[in-house]
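Morning F.,

Quick status update on the modeling queue. The single chain you submitted on Monday has been processed. Sequence for confirmation:
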Amino acid sequence: MRIAVIGAGSWGTAVADMVGRKQPVTLWARREELVEAINTTRTNPDYLPDHSLSEGVTASSDLEQTLARAEAIVMGVPSHGYRSVLELGSARIAPDTPIISLAKGVERDSLMRMTEVTADVLPGHRRDRIGVLTGPNLAREIVAGQPAATVIALEDERAAKGLQEVFVNPSFRVYTNTDVIGSESAGALKNVMAIAAGMAHGLGFGDNTMATLITRALAELTRLGIAMGGRPLTFAGLAGMGDLIATCMSSQSRNHTVGYGLGQGKKLDEIIAEMNQVAEGVKSTPGILALADRHQIEMPIAIQVARVLYEGASPLEAVSNLMGRAAKPETHGIGG
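Structure tokens below.
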């Protein structure tokens, strides 16, 4: 199966590297100088400079040619640029080609998930072949060969199994799931929660605080994810709880890094300027809250994150607001 990975950020490059260990794969990058660097030095100097890429990876800046040759497409483009890149290459994508998104966010104006954006840009495309790859997948650990697992969510089970065989390797276990909505929404919603976890870490709080935060964060994203059409059990799996734990606990998480900096007293603009990558949660938080309002779902953690990001509230004030909320029953872990 000829695979095209669109987007040469850290995760897109890591995915291309995994595929390239077994077969040829084309990695599209917008900038010609990055393409040349990947092809000549076998590294991605911007995002994974210390990792030697497998020989099966070939970089290209020709989007149309890359897509025209692909039997499956992996979209590693952040949510804010996803639509524009897909539109550029839309004419070269066959309607039955599986398209898998790596992005974990929602489009700010439309509030669409990336699979919905794909269907909107490609109205004639088979909906059952539009899905996501998601889970607790930190790029640096994956390329280092540390044991990890992921989920390919696709309604077409036969296509999902074919992709499962492409991505699986001795250190990367791949599961399939037909719940695209639940798997994708969990990945989008958890980024906001990771900012909150980073703030708690930056404030110097310990394990009790983190366990409390992650548990209540899981409750929030589960409530909204179910309201959006996801299945409850999905949120207890790799796409939900697994991804949430990794993103909330790891200093490798871009969203955790943003929160940590805020907790340490840094300004958001200062933190973003120091980063070389996109923290999806910063851009997705307003959209997540808009979705919560649309579905009439209470998300107190997300609200406090937004107050810190956009209204000048301090992280300590946000924690105080959360702790000062009225006491109520836990209601089996997904109550308010």
